[in-house]
Amino acid sequence: MSLPELPDPIPGEPEVHPDEVTRVPLAIEDWLTVVVMALLALITFANVLVRYFTSQSFAWTEEISVFLMIVLALVAGSAAVARNRHIRIEFFADNGPEARQRALARFGAFMMFLFFAVLAVLSARVVYDDIRFGETSPGIGVPVWWYTMWMPVMSVAIAGRALGLFIRRGRRP
Question: Where does the Tripartite ATP-independent periplasmic transporters DctQ component domain lie (predicted)?
């Protein structure tokens, strides 16, 4: 499958690069970002209105907002890995012979996979401990595992995206 042709860039505008073709659609991260941002905006707006009209605030908004911002960071990390826009030292990654660039890209993708796979295992242990000890959140008293369960889930997603990037970088000639 070939990538769609893009029109010539407009002078002065940044060049647009199409997303690589992936087995798992990148629209998943895009839509999750939209939903999480909309929830954050709604929660914050509701809290502002309540504070303005009643001089009180919703106690639960800070706890939920922090949780949503963490989820947003993990979703954005997954999208960055899938799109190969993750942090790297471009002087080394984008210079030199093509074989070295490919080897460094594969090494970086594999190390991301390894990191997030280990993070998934360790954060799953945290979730297990939260369930086992019955930890509750300080703000609204819900089980803490409701929040912490997303760390291993998103770590597995990012590890999967990194593994996909590793495989795609190995296929290039």
Answer: 40-169
- CB-based contact 21:82 (threshold 8 Å): no
Residue 29 has, within 13 A of its CA and on its CB side, a CA count of 21
The answer to whether 126 and 132 are in contact (CB under 8 A) is no
Query: Of 98, 120, 114, whose CA–CA distance to 162 is shortest?
Result: 114
Task: Round to whole Å and give the CA distance between 142 and 89.
Answer: 42
Cα 54 from Cα 145, distance rounded (Å): 32
What pLDDT sits at residue 1?
A: 47
Structural domain includes residue 9: no
For residue 18, is it within any domain? no
What percentage of residues in the chain have a pLDDT greater than 90?
A: 51
What confidence tens digit (pLDDT) does each residue in 38-57 have?
A: 999 999 998 889 888 888 87
How far is the C-alpha of 75 from the C-alpha of 52, rounded, in Å?
Answer: 32
Quote the number of domains for the chain. 1
